[in-house]
Amino acid sequence: MDPHLLRKLNAARRDRQAAIMLTDLADGRNRLMMKGDPIAGELGEAVEKAFRTGKAGVVEAEGQRFFLNVHVPSPRMVIIGAVHISQALAPMAAMAGFDVRVIDPRTAFATPERFENVDLVADWPEDALKDRPIDPFTALVAVTHDPKIDDWPLISALKAGAFYVGALGSRKTHARRVERLSDAGLGEAEIGRIDAPIGLDIGAQSPEEIAVAILGQVIAALRKPSPHTLAQAEKV
């Protein structure tokens, strides 16, 4: 492989950017493509699908055969709030392949006893996320019901182009949230990306059922992103 391309690929992986090393099987030439690069036609469709699924393989496009070696960062889930829903959601999300972190400054909730074997940070999100900021491959789940805790990470996730942003609360609660985020300078389209009430509409009642509804919605956003979500991620 061209050392220059290898350095670019390693830099992309270090910075948690999605990239595909495309090899023309006819002549062996390589080309590095980043997520968001404009690629037209059948090849563009194949590349988009590969980014979405994260699966490498041979594709045929425009009468040629290519091997797509896909490098997509592992998905993260940041859960704001060490509540009962989070106790169920964190292990479920980890089993589904997410790198999970639970953040809550309320030390009465954020205890190792309640979150065994979970990356738990008993601190304010503003401080907890300094070392691992939200990026386009992060799902942000806010479930504290407390705007002093939830609002900052929600704003950060929307600005970072996180692939999923969801917040717990009734429609009345969310209406007040929309007012606050608007006052903070976010536009209507940005705020509209928040899934609220959070989770798939499956009639969930218990914390465990709500956790299933949230995880299902997160996986759908990861594997079947809307055109708007893709556009937001490509701007970052």
Automatic annotation (TrEMBL):
Gene3D superfamilies: NAD(P)-binding Rossmann-like Domain. InterPro entries: MoCofactor_Util/Proc, XdhC_Rossmann_dom. It comes from the Bacteria. It holds the Pfam family XdhC_C. Transmembrane segments: none annotated. Residues 77-218 form the XdhC Rossmann domain. This is XdhC family protein. It comes from Hoeflea alexandrii.
